[in-house]
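### Sample
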Amino acid sequence: MSDSFHDQLLEDSRFLRADRRLDTELVDKLILQLNRIYPQILTDKEATKFRDLDVPTCVRLAELLAHLQGKGEEACREFYRALHLHVEEVYFSLPTRLRLRDSIDPFTTAASPTQQRYVLNDRGHMFFLSCFSVAVGVALLHYYGEAKVTRGSRALGMAALGLGRRAREVLIWYTEEPIRK
């Protein structure tokens, strides 16, 4: 990361002031996080000033950002941590984060990070069905092998309860065949 957090906050300030997702409640959470966890960055008196509800949220946020830039690199870094903790979708849409993500992997898709996080399997439904079929086949082989040893499988008989008529007939036929021999 070539830019310092101070430089990044300078660049992101305009975006943060314009973003409507940072409402009064979220700005208060950020202020409280900085005040409680890092009182050397934001004292009680400063936190009270920035939490004044008589001042519009956009003005309070602009003053907070200017104050943090004046405090230095550590204050800017801790602001980014608080932003990431409380308002993740805003954090990942910051211009510096988008630029950093694009510079790391220019071939990424246009999907948002929250969408990418919840993708469990990108191979499709046929892959899932084939894996599931293999698992069922292995289970049937295991139970059928058990039936040869014990002369009848209770597991196959129990498995037949929840299946359709034809599948039930096949499973029952397999359980009865070793008994006939």
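Residues 125-150 form the longest helix (26 residues). This sample (Bicaudal D homolog 2 (Drosophila)) is used throughout the tutorial notebook.
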